[in-house]
Design goal:
The complex is a heterodimer of chains A (385) and B (60). With 385 residues, chain A is an alpha+beta fold. Helix content of chain A is 25%, strand content 46%. By secondary structure, chain B is mainly beta. The chains are: A alpha+beta (385), B mainly beta (60). At the A-B interface, helix 2 and strand 2 of A face strand 2 and strand 4 of B.
């Protein structure tokens, strides 16, 4: 009997509740044989049933106001279930591991850093021609070929490299600010294109003339193309190449008047309704070209199981008119103007490391805003000797 | 002890079990009583049985 029970599989479940006996009778009446009923307390028993009856038993126990608790599952059925669930889990982990192993050997993302005038698409085309693309096997990248092809791509590129790190390959490109029109052998030196503090200087060709930490003025010679040895009679010239990373401080300012055109309510208004759910929002039609909405009421209804917020309010028509704005509004306007200036002035490869804004109220109520932006960027430009 | 044609368990404890049957309520008394198997045909009770009664009647 025990062997048969083991083969067919059985479950030990606890029944907890006020009407335990009635629940047992219901189980028996529904053709579920129960074994080894043991009292666990005043209102709780444990019973054994066949694995096949578990679902039906659970439903019946719940229907009779009792709580079923699965204590243990025994027998071949339970072992089979456990093995299959663990096996499928192991298989999933194994497949994930193999996929991750496969992907970790490859370049999944290509980042291009340091572009100023050259288009990213151009660089990607050159990378493709050098055999570098997403999902390429990392070890198959010919680094020298990529460097050479990138430098040959555009004469304004003074430095190019590809650095794989994990699944990301970063292509670093440095462009000279002034393009030499002559051929590659034209001797040239690199100068600072703005006042800055040198953070690093790497001379690939030529002689570094400044040191790390040194503050230099605009047009200071950074890498000289004149590499004449000391005591030599004839000058030896080369085309200086290298990377000069420096810290640059920019200052921008603007003045915002306290009296200016501001949107004001005209007095025209209309009622609006807005429906909002997870995926979309719908606003009733408003004829005004410029308006602001004040919502008064919000109700949440459920449509096909999805909560929908229904909001009603009023749309007020706005028109520009001369008005006085508050200091916080002036500051906001000033920040927007300064942000636009920063966006238009800073080179694309500049990395902003600090920003500081100062506001001064001038006589007459205007606001003077001055922003200092500290960046790290490539500052060299080439000039023929 | 096996009881056939019972209708259901009215009360269950280690000292007594009350069963409902077509001829009335049967009360089984004893120690460490345990329902070994119960299905729609019969019920098997294990333990030290000291007596079986028809409730409101005499000892069987």
């Amino acid at each position: 009997m025990k062997q048969w029970k083991f083969i067919s599989g059985y479950v030990k479940i606890g029944i907890k509740g006020q009407r335990v006996e009635k629940t047992l009778n219901a189980l028996i009446a529904n053709g579920i044989a129960i074994h080894d009923v043991s009292l666990l307390g005043r209102r709780a028993v444990s019973i054994y049933i066949r694995s096949d009856d578990l679902y039906e038993a659970t439903v019946l126990i719940n229907e009779h106001g009792c709580e079923p608790i699965i204590i243990s599952k025994k027998g071949i059925t339970a072992i089979k279930q456990m093995v299959f669930s663990k096996l499928s889990l192991l298989l999933t982990i194994l497949v994930c591991f193999i996929v991750m192993l496969f992907l970790s050997q490859r370049v999944l993302f290509i980042q291009i850093d340091g572009l100023d005038n050259i288009e990213e698409e151009q660089v990607r085309t050159v990378l493709n021609s050098a055999g570098v693309h997403e999902f390429i096997y990392r070890k198959s990248i010919d680094f020298d070929l990529v460097r050479t092809k990138l430098i040959e791509m555009d004469e304004s590129i003074c430095y190019a490299d590809i650095r794989p790190s994990g699944v990301i390959a970063t292509v670093v490109i440095r462009e000279s600010n002034t393009v030499l029109k002559q051929d590659d052998s034209t001797p040239a030196s690199i100068y600072a294109d703005k006042d800055c503090t040198i953070l690093s200087i790497t001379a690939e060709n030529g002689k570094a003339m400044v040191n790390k930490g040194q503050t230099v003025k605009r047009n200071t010679l950074l890498i000289s193309g004149d590499i004449t040895p000391a005591g030599s009679d004839s000058r030896v010239l080369t085309q200086a190449k290298g990377e000069i990373i420096a810290q640059v401080v920019y200052r921008f300012s603007c003045v915002v008047d306290s009296i200016c055109d501001v949107p004001m309510r005209t007095g025209n208004q209309l009622s609006v309704t807005k429906l909002e759910t997870y995926f979309f929002e719908f606003l009733s039609e408003i004829d005004y070209s410029d308006y602001e909405i004040e919502m008064n009421e919000k109700k949440v209804i459920t449509a096909a199981g999805i909560p929908v917020s229904v909001m009603t309010g009023t749309a007020y028509e706005l028109k520009l008119a001369q008005g006085k704005i508050t200091q916080s509004e002036m500051e906001l306007r000033a920040r927007n103007i300064l942000d636009e200036k920063i966006k238009n002035t800073l080179p694309h490869d500049a990395q902003i490391i600090a920003k500081q804004t100062e506001f001064t109220v001038l006589d007459g109520g205007s606001l003077l805003a001055v922003i200092s932006v500290t960046t790290i960027e490539n500052v060299g430009f080439a000039k023929s000797i | 002890m096996e009881i056939e044609n019972y209708c259901g368990v009215l009360e269950y404890g280690t000292d007594y079990i009350r069963l409902y049957s077509s001829i009335g309520i049967i009360r089984i008394e004893g120690k460490n009583l345990n329902i070994c198997l119960a299905d729609h045909e019969s019920i098997i009770i294990n333990g030290e049985i000291s007596g079986i009664f028809y409730e409101n009647q005499q000892k069987v």
